[in-house]
Amino acid sequence: MSGAARTGGTRPTCALCGARVRPPFRTPQPEIAPDLDMRPGEPARSTLPNWLQTCAGCSAVAPDLGVLPAEAKPVVESAEYRALAETVPAEAIPFRRWSLIRRGLQDPAGEAEALLQAAWACDDAQAGAEADALRAAVAQAWESASGTAALLRRLDVLRRSGDWARAEHLVQTLNEQSLDATAASVVAFQRARIAARDAGRHLMSSALPPPAHAPHVSHRRHTPVGFWGRLFRKGT
Asked: What are the residue boundaries of the structural domains of the chain, listed by start?
């Protein structure tokens, strides 16, 4: 069956087994600042459980089951994929399964993003140890990351996982680069949080100087121009 299978009238179908599935979820536009790892703010934040669909017929997982390529089928049928239902918090199962599918499709960037989303799901489920382990895996996957935006996300993942030594080293690496004002503010904030051994969640707005703290819309007016600034505005 084609990866773009859409049979069954107006209802989409799973590309792997033909079962009817719901249409892809449309995430609402965030209205407040994202986390420092770019988890979007509310109201998008609370919709995390809806970002992925799980097929009732074959247990395939994807944002859009109707466009899964046939190459995903061996992954979905694998013992490793099935075993996740018994080994990880229920809230994280779809994201862990999606990460395996992305790996099978030779998409390491997509795999890492899915693992980070699984960590967010574990955060929501108060499964701190699992979230830490997932962030450690994401940090490893992003070890060769380049570009300010990617490095700043990795820095937050390292701090949140409690990997203080690597986080401190990355702060030093970033401070040796030519950073725009927004990125420099984020690094300074992260450095202070690392020194305090604070592994908690923080919003992007917390890392930016006034008047960015309140209201959030002020970020759009005062965030300096630069790659990280453009990325931040894009996510708001």
From this structure: 146-236
